[in-house]
Amino acid sequence: MHITAKDLAALIPPGFTLGVATAAFQIEGALDEGGRGPAAWDRFAAKPGAIVENHSPVVATDHYHRMPQDVALLKQLGVDSYRFSFSWPRIQPGGTGPANSAGLAFYDRLLDELLASGISPMATIYHWDTPLELEEAGGWMNRDTAYRLGEYAAIVAEAFGDRVARWVTINEPATVSANGYAFGLHSPGKELALGAFPTVHHQLLGHGLAVQALRAARVPGEIGMTNVYSPMVPNSINPLDKISAGIMDLGQNRLYADPVLTGKYPDLIRAAKFFSSFEHPEEDMEIISQPLDFYGLNYYMPTKVAAGPGGGTVPSSMAEAMGSDLSATGSGTTPFHVETWPEADITAYGWPVKPEYMAVALKEMAERYPSLPPVIITEGGASFEDIIVRDKSTNTRFIPDERRLKYLSDHLETALRATAPGGVAESMDLRGYYVWSFLDNFEWSAGYKQPFGLLHVDFETLERTPKASYFWFQELIEERDLAAAAELAIAQAVVPDVLVDDGVEGSEAPDDGAALGANA
């Protein structure tokens, strides 16, 4: 069981954003339309065996052609905000030079549709779709890519700065470095292991240059970045497990957050010889650590770490879901590995469902970074196999995704309680939660086999069907709004605190109902 939507709504503080998220490459399709240039992901996804069952992103959910319909479904859902990403190769084919007018026009229409529907836009500037020409020049191994991101940020700032309420400069640099350049699971498919470290600094520099471009354009919207965060848990009391978890924490979490929030890399990282495989000017850190209006966390699960190579880098169930057998990746060579959680429910991706660790993640962030800006959970969600139930009498379809609904409810409740007064992370100013994802989509190397959406997508007909989780989120928002309206009505009611003595013996004050009625 999980908390009711009404009771959960009562925990939501004023001004807290409830939203949903997507990314351009995962939903738009139309890869060869509207002047879009090729992305490195286009080429990677076309490689036989790179994607589960060789699924193709060429059509995806066809959002490029069905955008007005999708915005109508967002409006029906009632969300406060929609997080989407601009497609770099659609706006700036090749990653250099002038903007593509057709690409700008598509996002013009999207933003106007959102605002007309009362939905606040949160735009991600870079969500992994590096233009192919930049990747061929080295991609994030090349420092120049950071400057190209800054130039691209200036283009979108000038075009859309008047309508975007929140900006995310870059999404999950940790995933790009690890899956794209260290292990070869994502585009561009490099297997550089520790040689991928330059991509960390170059992405963070790109973030900082994008912030500079947005500030120079004087955009009124809030500016932040986002990275995935996973608490690292030792597999046992073995000191080696604890050390291994600490190293994983450095590489997954602090390596990206520390430079942005403190202006320096963790001491251990800076002391390690392999990190000196690239040099950078000292002024880079000032660019990277510019003050932000918010810091975004993508939270899905904790990670259990054990010393030794084990059976591979990650559990086989998780590996297979990603579309590549990771079980042999680093096997026999890595000093530690990820273990399973036998007692936990797992998602279709093989991820453990442990909502209590959401509080751990928020507590760790709050304690590590005393000057932490407001935080937004920019992604949270789960992939589960969906079963479609058809009512023959009405020819309607229903998808009872109770496990996804419970995952979202439990994680949001945990986050709200952790950051409420008396919570373990009460010093954190938590401003919102965005569900990943609005609709089922192309889930990178997992293709269409990992549905995260509140909306089911039939990838043959492209029909959208709301799931039970969609209606639950809709109910949550409605209950939140009803409670807020009731509080406002009470606050605005004029109820006299002190009755004037009219000198008539025995006069009585009207009861509360009469007082409220008289001033209604």
Automatic annotation (TrEMBL):
Keywords: Glycosidase, Hydrolase. Its EC number is 3.2.1.-. It is an enzyme of class 3 (hydrolase). One of its GO terms (molecular function) is hydrolase activity, acting on glycosyl bonds. It comes from the Bacteria. Pfam families: Glyco_hydro_1. PANTHER family: GLYCOSYL HYDROLASE (PTHR10353), LP05116P (PTHR10353:SF36). Belongs to the glycosyl hydrolase 1 family. This is Glycoside hydrolase family 1 protein. It comes from Arthrobacter sedimenti. The lineage of its organism: Bacteria, Bacillati, Actinomycetota, Actinomycetes, Micrococcales.
